[in-house]
Each structure stands twice: as structure tokens, then as C-alpha cells.
Amino acid sequence: VMVNGEASKSGRSIFSSSTITTPDETTATLGIGKAGRLELDPNSSVNVVFDDSSVDAELTSGQLTVLGSLGTVKVRTNDGKTTTLNSGDSITASGQAQSKKSGGSKNYWIWALVAAGAAVAIIIAVSQSNNNDTVVSPNR
Predict the structure, then answer these.
(1) Which of these, 2, 7, 8, 55, could form a disulfide with 50 (CB 3.0-4.6 Å)?
(2) With contact defined as beta carbons under 8 Å apart, do 62 and 45 qualify?
């Protein structure tokens, strides 16, 4: 990962007006305090300007995802448009916005059905069990 043209290691501090670039097969997560956390996909480049409550970014290549934010995250893309992103939203440098939230709801329903099936199996097993009235208690 490059920060302002210099190789960077994990944990490096960045300052407002920094340019972050990711090479092939490398992602970068930017923790910007209360303003949020951003993830850059491989082959991405972004210039970030931020303060305690907001992030303004210019994405020139690749894709950026907002992992979490208490403030506003505005991203300008190559088409000249500025888009406000919420947690879980992504945008490409060409300006195509995507929401990861919608994909997660599909997974939710799958797990809800699995949990419901397990609950039904437990209820059937308990109701079909031999009703032995012998109580074993550690108290005398």
C-alpha cells in the first residue's frame, strides 16, 4: 500500500489530504477516527480529506467501501459526481454505487430458516421422548 507515493506498513498514520493507493491483490482499511472506516479494494486510488465528523474522498480508480461511519462520507468519482455513502455501501471509480446491505439480507433468511428447522426438530424430539417421571436431584 502506498501513502502519498511512499510504501506504507500496517498501522501507519495518515493525515487529511493523503492519497492512498493499493496494488494488485492488496486491500487497505483506513480508520479515520469517529468519521469512519473505509476499505479500498485492490488496484484502487483515493485522496481523502477528513475531520472528526466527515470524510470527503476522490476515488480515481478501483472501489471504496464504507465499513462504518458516524459522520458523512462523500465520494467524488471520475464522472464528476459526488455520492454520499452510508455504512455498508460501496462505489467504483466509474460512479457505480453498490449496497452490501441488500446482499446480507439474503444470508439472514437462510440462517433464519436453518434456526427455525432446528427449533422444530428439538420440539418434536422433546414431545416424542419417553416421559420418565424419575427426577434426579443433587439435593437430599
Answers:
(1) 55
(2) yes
**Torsion over CA: 103, 57, 47, 80 (sign):** positive
Give the DSSP per-residue string, 53-79. Answer: SEEEEEEEESEEEEEE-SSEEEEE-TT
User: Side-chain half-sphere of 15: how many Cα atoms within 13 Å?
Assistant: 1
- Say if strands 97-99 and 89-92 run parallel, antiparallel, or are unpaired: antiparallel
Q: Tell me which residue of 24, 34, 17 sits closest to 1, measured CA to CA.
A: 24
Q: Is this structure's pTM higher than 0.70?
A: no
- pLDDT tens digits, 39-76: 999 999 999 999 888 899 999 999 999 988 877 899 99
Residue 98 burial (10 A CB sphere; 0-12, 13-18, 19+)? middle
Question: What does the pLDDT read at residue 118?
Answer: 84
